[in-house]
Amino acid sequence: MVSSLQTNEVTATDTTVFEPRLIAFLCNWCTYTGADLAGTSRLQYPPNIRVIRLMCSGALDPVYVLKALLEGADGVLIGGCHPGDCHYVSGNYKARRRVAILKEILTQMGFDEDRVWLRWISASEGRLFADTVEEMVTALRAKGPNPLKGVWAI
Ligand code: FES
Question: Which fold, 19-142?
Fold first, then answer.
């Protein structure tokens, strides 16, 4: 009886302690500006995210997504302009293709590809940005820590 209570206490503690770390690669013209709007609109979202600004989602080398995952991130969010709205015409289409291939590779490595999200969020969608971060943090809390960062750590 006592040990079952102790087990429950440990589980509850573990759940409350784990806070996923997210790296976000955001396009300057849409999602980064949307994130900025979320901030200036004082919308609340979890502070688990660290943002890296790119000029376009098409400028993201998938190696940096892998690097983030292998070096401690529990998830990676890639944000770009909606299809047809990329300021460099087709960067977001290239990003979409690269992320699809990256997810195939992650799956073949035995990695949960749902830790990498690609979302289209425009400069006027501060609410969508805040909701996306909230949704991703909730999903990653449920998944637990990224298992590969320990396995692949040097
Ligand atoms: S400029 Fe935003 S995705 Fe290309």
Answer: Rossmann fold (3.40.50)
